[in-house]
Amino acid sequence: MGSKEFLRGDLVDRIGRQPQDNLKDFVAAKEAEWMGQRTLPIADIFTDPAFQTKLKDLPYADFKEFKNAIDLLVKAGRDEKKIYSEGAAADRAQTIAEMRTKLKTFPQQLLPDERNWLQEKAQQPKKFVAGLTAIPTILRRWERYDPRGSSADT
After folding, report:
1. pLDDT tens digits, one per residue of 94-105
2. Whole-prediction pTM value?
3. How much is the pLDDT for 126?
């Protein structure tokens, strides 16, 4: 996991990308997006844009309602993330199935089985050199010919 500062900055960044200006608009937009399948029952006092009370000044009952509202928003966010990831997995499975059907359209090529002993021995140095260069070539392709490798992005 990341540090608290990273998480806080990430949260501020994600909130900044939202088109809504306040919690009331955000809740209304999410409920409209879910088309009545789910609601976010958050107390009206917290959705009021004029709400500026510090958490330490809230009475216990209001603080408990505020905490429940935050927990509800977190759970809704996790559920939405799960739905998106399941949708991505379904899209990936559909794409793979389409690719497999397209691969079946290629004709099957049979390799010649009969080679004489001399031709086989003449191919051995070529196969040896190809075997030595195959793995580095594949790795370079996976890394997109980046000299620092694909792990440089992380």
Report:
1. 999 988 888 888
2. 0.48
3. 86
Surface-to-core class of residue 45, CB atoms within 10 Å of its CB (0-12 exposed, 13-18 middle, 19+ buried) = middle
DSSP 70-95: HHHHHHHHHHHHHHHHHHHHHHHHHH
Q: How far is CA 64 from CA 23, 36, 39, 52, 101, in A?
A: 18, 26, 19, 17, 55
Residue 133 in tokens: 């260069």
- Residue type at 1 in one-letter notation: M
CB proximity list for 24: less than 8 A, separation 6 or greater:
47, 48, 49
Write down the domain spans for the chain: 4-103, 117-153
Q: For residue 139, give the amino acid letter.
A: L
Q: How far apart are CA 23 and CA 69, in angstroms?
A: 11
Q: How many CA atoms lie within 13 A of 37 on its CB side?
A: 7
